[in-house]
Design a protein that fits this description.
With 47 residues, the protein is α+β, with helices and mostly antiparallel strands. The protein has one domain. It has one helix and two strands, in the order H-E-E. It has a two-stranded antiparallel ribbon. The radius of gyration is 13 Å and the shape is flat. The N and C termini lie far apart (29 Å). The model has no long low-confidence stretch (mean pLDDT 94).
């Protein structure tokens, strides 16, 4: 594990939903990051 610049994250091999998760952590208007199964497919819901 190493510290990296946020701007470098899109170039790195990370979990698929890392950037939306970081968005929820940084935006005071967002409070929820959920995985919801719809029609047999996992979807990310951000609120």
């Amino acid at each position: 594990m190493v510290w990296v610049k946020k701007s470098d994250l899109p170039k790195m091999n990370t979990v698929n939903d890392l950037l939306p998760l970081l968005q929820v952590m940084e935006d005071d208007n967002l409070t929820e990051f959920q995985y919801v199964i719809e029609n047999g497919k996992w979807n990310v819901i951000i609120k």
